[in-house]
Amino acid sequence: MTAQLRYLAFISNDPDTLSDFYIRHFGLEKLGRSEHGDVSLSDGFYNLTFLKSRPNLGEPRMEIGLHHLGLQVDDVSEATKQFLQLFENYVTGPPMTRDVPIWSF
Question: Which CATH architecture has domain 3-72?
Fold first, then answer.
């Protein structure tokens, strides 16, 4: 099975300043900005999102900094099986239901 990193998300107090830095110094392009101030960038292959820290973000963990990452895998079922075997002692509950399994630990 193969996996490739495709996405990183950070929680930030100032997504606009961070995104401006990455645009100016690394040539990333802005994909969009949410009404809440979240900003998403891309280099055409890899995406980077800065989530605006706010009470209604609704995330289990709200620390400033790296929040989560996204991997593209060729077999979601196999990746899920391997993940649970490796991290079974750390997973705190069932996955949050979305298109693919997402766990908090």
Answer: Roll (3.10)
